[in-house]
Design a protein that fits this description.
The chain has eight helices and twelve strands. It is α/β, with parallel strands linked by helices. The protein folds into two domains: 57 residues, no CATH class; 187 residues, Dna Topoisomerase Vi A Subunit, Chain: A, domain 2 (3-Layer(aba) Sandwich).
């Protein structure tokens, strides 16, 4: 797939008729719609439409869903867990992960049995799912969850850093940044965009895991954010795999900012 051009107000998507998110190929005429499903789903997000002969066939417009609701009451579940959460329960997890217990608490972490839990939020700030982590490091989501982003309990009060996972987000918070954690290196781009818009933030650092998938996912997110008029730079966590590993080496914000200052804002 090459020469993809983003839709706009003058040339909206031929499939969903919206002026944002989607794209059309200048060479094949295929449409990449982010809202209307087809039998050709793209791994990075969206669905292909058309025959590739330069003019996609007319598609019946389908109603779009703002955000897909979870299959259980995430808000009630989260509030119930937080009512019984306390620092004593979080302390062993903080020690194991090498993170400050108060930062875990601000990220909404809770403990259920032998699982550490984090709430996920949609772009409107509503809980939409729950990520779990076991003592052995296995990471899953509760059945019925919808993918969302990990956020602290308060709005932006510092530079915004988008990273991967709730523990990297916790490390970013501990370093004095305001984090947005994605559940993986790909996906949830819309949740990130809507979260930034909700807080009127137009500049963000993307801290990618130092591997191929992490950097590829960061570049994809950066393209989306720049298309939405958000200034972006892509950085990596020093010589470490991820931001939590870097934090565990006792790095301080000054060193982080000095290291990241070499990255170009675009």
């Amino acid at each position: 797939m090459s020469e993809w051009q983003r839709v706009n107000q003058n040339k909206p998507c031929q499939i969903c008729h919206k002026p944002t998110w989607c794209a059309v190929s200048a060479t094949t005429g295929l449409s990449l719609c982010m809202r209307v499903a087809s039998d050709r789903q793209v791994q990075g997000g969206g669905w292909l439409h058309g025959t590739g002969n330069g003019s996609p066939p007319p598609q019946k417009r389908q109603p779009t869903v703002d955000y897909e609701a979870p299959c259980f009451d995430c808000q009630l579940w989260y509030e119930t867990v937080r009512r019984v959460a306390n620092i004593d329960k979080l302390k062993p997890w903080a020690d194991q992960l090498g993170l400050p217990v108060d930062a875990l608490d601000i990220m909404g972490a809770g403990v259920v049995g032998e699982m550490l839990t984090f709430p996920m939020y949609d772009g409107h700030g509503k809980p939409c799912g729950v990520r779990t982590r076991t003592l052995s490091g296995d990471k899953k989501a509760l059945l019925g969850s919808r993918a969302g982003v990990f956020l602290p309990a308060f709005g932006p009060d510092s530079d915004v850093v988008v990273c991967e996972g709730p523990t990297d987000a916790t490390a970013a918070l501990a370093l004095g940044f305001w984090p947005i954690g994605r559940p993986s290196c790909l996906g949830c781009e819309r949740h990130v965009v809507d979260t930034l818009k909700r807080f009127s933030v137009f500049k963000a650092t993307i801290c990618a895991d130092a591997d191929g998938p992490g950097l590829a996912g960061a570049r994809k997110l950066a393209d989306v954010l720049r298309a939405c008029k958000v200034q972006v730079r892509i950085v990596t966590p020093g010589h470490c795999k991820d931001l939590r590993d870097w934090y565990k080496l006792k790095v301080v914000r000054g060193i982080v900012e000095t290291t990241w200052s070499q990255a170009e804002w675009r």
